Amino acid sequence: MPCPDFLQSRPRSPATRQDDRVRHSVHVLARPVPGDIFFSSTYRYHGVLFMHTYPAAKHTVGFMGLSVDHSSFTEDEYLRAATRLRENLAALRTLLDRPGFGLGEPSLGAEVELSIIDKNARALPLNREVLAESLDPHLQLELDRFNLEYNLSPVPATGSPFSAMQRELESAFESVDASAAQHDGRIVAIGILPTLTIDQLQSGWMTDLARYHALAAGIKRIRQERFAIRINGPEPLETEFDGVSAEGANTSFQVHLRVNPGDFANCYNAAQLATPLALAVGANSPFLLGHSLWDETRIALFKQAVDTRQHSQGWRRMARVPFGHGWVRHGAYELFAESCHLYPILIPICGDEDDIAIVHDGGIPSLDELRLHQGTIWNWNRPVYDSADGGHLRIEMRALPSGPTPVDMMANAAYLVGLTAGLCKSIETLLPAFPFRYADYNFYRAAQTGLDAELLWPTFDTTSPVQVTARDLCRQLLPIADDGLAGMGIAANERALLLGVIRDRLDSGTTPAAWQRRTLADLDNKPRPEALEELVEIYLSKSATGRPVADW
């Protein structure tokens, strides 16, 4: 997975706030994820329980729009939620047909997921405590107790948006790291923490919030099997987990791009075409449970960790973590309809709005049930409906990994957004020469072997497609990314800086995943657990310089 500029309900100086913590033991009890309606924080101050609700603004993101306060549901609740979901879909269709709906200038936002580690570079399950130290409304709990997520403020997609996000990210890392230090912890931005153990990915390590219990219960209700994980690679892994907590091993850097409804189909298809390239050059997750696996092991792990399909069936439903089911033909409605028709409801909580009546009266509905349901289907490029700012659509680009440095993440985002914008100009010409299954193939090949992947690309000079290495293709498409960013109004110096970071990786062959593999190879004289701990320490020391990974 962009967050509004929230107002502090109880502004105090840092010195006063720290003094309050010491004397009055400020403690965050719960903070639901920012949804597309609101989010709230609850804590004790001077012995009194406080709850503050922060209103939605231009970009609000998160797991869902509705507040989830319980995790056990009746069949009647599932039936009512299904009815409400169909009503939401009908309301959305009418809304998208409304002249002028969703028109506005492009904007960007992002969310970064982080791991908390101890002095030995091992997972530290203290996300509540770190959140309590911070009291920053942009910070929130994530699935496992060693996870946190930071939501960046949305910015206009013109001028120097990536520089603005980078500055906020650097400040956030410093602040959250200082909060973690209060509990002898540290923060690391990395796709998968290499030192994780199998015990740390079992259900006992899941964050104790109703929304996560509801998610876990909903998946178990449908799956009715243990969670088996099988991932090929240099050191194949096969293991089992007792729930969905293994998904918490994945930490991502998710970018949001606001798109006008009339441009949505072409822009989304272009993002699907571009994503394997950005994934190959930005990969940062080569190790899981001591095994060397894919360059982006997150892709395989996420798909299996929340899979609701029963493997004993003679046929299989669509995975809840899909790359996609085909090129979008007309617009965003197709993707929302797919979500409603192809996937069973996991969390049957309903709002009170009459969405159809609101649309017919010319208003902007919340579509609570649709957004909740959409939050439990994890397309690598996901459509987002937001009722804020007069209502609008976004593409949530979910495939990029967390880390290693703010400038690296901004370079990944700029390359992906630039390619999307650049390819969008010719997408209708490209797609007839490139069936969707080739894009799907590219995505998983890029995740497996990064820049060494042999990818496919449309061509008009001979029979399409042609095969080319990811490294060569990424280089060939740099001008397209630059052209796309320029067309959005991104400043020339910003484009040169960030695409230069990508070019340096291509010249040196150094992606974050490649750096991790080389570093571990240099430590091969040590036992694997000890070597992985040292790998994380070196990673942290290099990241602290702020220099991009190609300079390490």
Give an account of the 3D structure:
There is one protein chain. This protein has 552 residues and is an alpha+beta fold. Helices cover 41% and strands 15% of the residues. It contains 18 helices and 17 strands. The strands form five sheets. Strands 4, 5, 6, 7, 8, 11, 14 and 15 form an eight-stranded antiparallel β-sheet that branches. A three-stranded antiparallel β-sheet has the order 1-2-3, with helices on one face. Strand 5 and strand 6 form a beta hairpin. Helix 11 packs across helix 15 and helix 15 packs antiparallel against helix 16. It is globular. 53% of the residues are buried.
Count of β-strands: 17
Segments where pLDDT lies below 50 for 5+ residues?
A: 1-64
Evaluate the radius of gyration: 22 Å
**Helix run count:** 18
Give the overall silhouette. globular
Q: Work out the strand percent.
A: 15-25%
Instruction: Give the terminus-to-terminus CA distance.
Output: 28 Å
Mean pLDDT, to the nearest integer, reads: 88
The biggest beta sheet reads:
8 strands, antiparallel
Give the helix proportion (percent range).
Answer: 40-55%
Structural class: alpha+beta
